[in-house]
Amino acid sequence: MAAPVMDTCHVSCCANRTPNVVSWGRGGLIAFGTCNSVALYNPQVLIFTACAVCLGHSGPVCAVDALSLSSSQLLVASASSDSTVKLWTCNGELWLASCSQDCLIRVWRLFAKAATEPVQQTDAVLKMKENVFQVSGDGEFAVTLETVLAGHENWVYGIHWQPPCVKGDSVEQPLKLLSASVDKTMILWGPEEDSGMWVELVRVGEVGGNTLGFYGCQMSPDGFMILAHAFHGALHLWHCDSNQGEWRPSVVISGHFNAVQDLSWDPEGDFIITVGSDQTTRLFTPWTRNGRSEITWHEISRPQIHGYDMQCLTMVGRFQFVSGADEKVLRVFKAPRNFVESFANISCTPLEKLLGCNDIADLPEGASTPALGLSNKAVFQGDLTSQSSQQDSEDFNSLSNQYKESYFQPLKLTEPPTEDDLLQNTLWPEVQKLYGHGFEMFCLASDSERTVVASACKASKSEHAAILLWSTTSWKQLQSLPCHSLTVTQMAFSPNGRLLLAVSRDRTWSLWRRDKLPPLPFSLYANTSKDTAVHTRIIWSCDWSSDSKYFVTSSRDKKVIIWGHCGSGDSVGECEGESVTPCSSVLDVGDSATAVSICPYLCSDQSYLLAVGLENGKIVLYKWRPSEDLSSGSDWSRCGETDACQSHTLTVKRLRWRPRPGRAGHGGNEERAWVQLASAGADHVVKIFNIKISAL
């Protein structure tokens, strides 16, 4: 069997924001629901087989749990929307735990009553009250309340028994119970050896931030690792140090908890930045654990935590980007010194190489956000030294103390940070706001020299559909480019920096050329109209070939088309008097083409490699070669696609090739045979694929 063309390198996702959505299997695999998919944390193949059917509920079953008994039988407990909880196959003594919004945990003992119990002629003995009930055909059972555990300060959403373990020929159930609460703590409970009284054994949790606590918890089969999933979908993992017996936070995967709208590689291809409808901007980079050769991707910074759904971003330098959200303002962010130092440590890159000629002393240490604000405020070294003295002198009744800023604490990271640090200590300072649009932002683009930024907002009229150009040195508006009548959905500058391409909901594209003389204004060079348009539905996406000779458009009409000066061999815009026309046959991809991107490197046969993202979540690879005969469609060849496990489960929102050959984090001459493709989906997932271009 031939090796797959696309190899999944990284999947970024998080748990759904609901209780009972995470499970830790006895084989060590963590499964959790993410959007409408089930994610498997460890790469193992699982086969689920139906071995029994329990009939009895009259409504949908919303929760099920099971445990093995010492007698090798299985107890299954099920809860249903028919307001009943049912137990299946009950023999011997069982322990049940329940949690509630009263902040308490109750542990119950369930056991079978003997057929006849002798009357004890002894003095009065203090006993727990037994609730006795009968099960038809199975005899009499009793339930007693063993203990009430009070330790949480808010609703308890999740509890989990330590899984049973096999010792010799028997199965033993350790009496350890894990609980998770909205108070952002997990507690491990167990009975004391001497008294048998249930006590708190371990308490772990998060401090600070604006999260709303934990939705559930799980314990590893060996009991040495515990996991919680939070209100915002983040996973929190702790492990027990076998040498010291202390519980420490561990590195864990993370991702957006809503649709991912846009992504961008940094100019060197060392990391990606993503934005999503969860109102966050996240930065992911490869990392190698100490003593291991395997490279894994992790989130190391959350530059922006906003109050509006994020929509778009573009890089304007290695450590600077512009982002747009469901607001009329564009915001510019620049990396602080603490991030640059941490990134150097994690990526094992010399600090001087990252900064070049820039002086790190001029950068702020980090950023903080006011509790009732949206702008990340720069924090300098002097702010950190005066912070503690201000806290001591201020009166708690003052407004500034009741609504404190999310104070920044410098980090010296050598591994990816915890969720707590991501929320509070990895923000980037906001250096500029750009005003000019009348409606919510929709798309952004920057030229190859990172000197000009183009922006567009949602529009239902032509006067609001104009593209605005901004200078990255002064951050002043340079020009307004009116052409379209509806929202501009995506833009792309040509690699040579001379042309700006825009596609729109009005089913047309426009091409703007930069004059060679100062002040370098852009003028309309070519465009399609309603009469000349080839696409019959909204054009979702566009991109350029690396030689600036061609550009591609993809549409809801399932068509992908490549445009240029056909037959000339010149870059678009360099042939005076030559019109821009389709240079390819119309490619029907079978579904709405929501994203498209051209690989910056040619295949071995000198053909162009394109990735097309579809509304159904699939990503398809095509090769295209210029041809004089466009009627047969022979200029296109399909060379690969994602399988069911690799594909997104909802619409592909964005595709971006790594700007450099090779796989990020890897080294060696053989890396030039590889390219990497990043994708963002409405299914909350960011994926990175390795593709061996030399084999296509």
UniProtKB/TrEMBL annotation:
Pfam families attached to this UniProt entry: WD40
GO annotation, cellular component aspect: cytoplasm; elongator holoenzyme complex; nucleus
WD repeats: 57-88, 253-284, 481-512, 532-563
A Gene Ontology biological process term: tRNA wobble uridine modification
The keyword Ribosomal protein belongs to this UniProt entry's keyword annotation: no
Main location: cytoplasm
InterPro entries: Elp2, Quinoprotein_ADH-like_sf, WD40/YVTN_repeat-like_dom_sf, WD40_repeat_dom_sf, WD40_rpt
SUPFAM superfamilies, A to Z: Quinoprotein alcohol dehydrogenase-like, WD40 repeat-like
Pathway annotation from the record: tRNA modification; 5-methoxycarbonylmethyl-2-thiouridine-tRNA biosynthesis
Keywords tagged on the record: Cytoplasm, Nucleus, Repeat, tRNA processing, WD repeat
Localization (cell): Cytoplasm; Nucleus
Record family assignment: Belongs to the WD repeat ELP2 family.
Protein name: Elongator complex protein 2
Organism listed in the record: Cyprinus carpio carpio
Organism classification: Eukaryota, Metazoa, Chordata, Craniata, Vertebrata
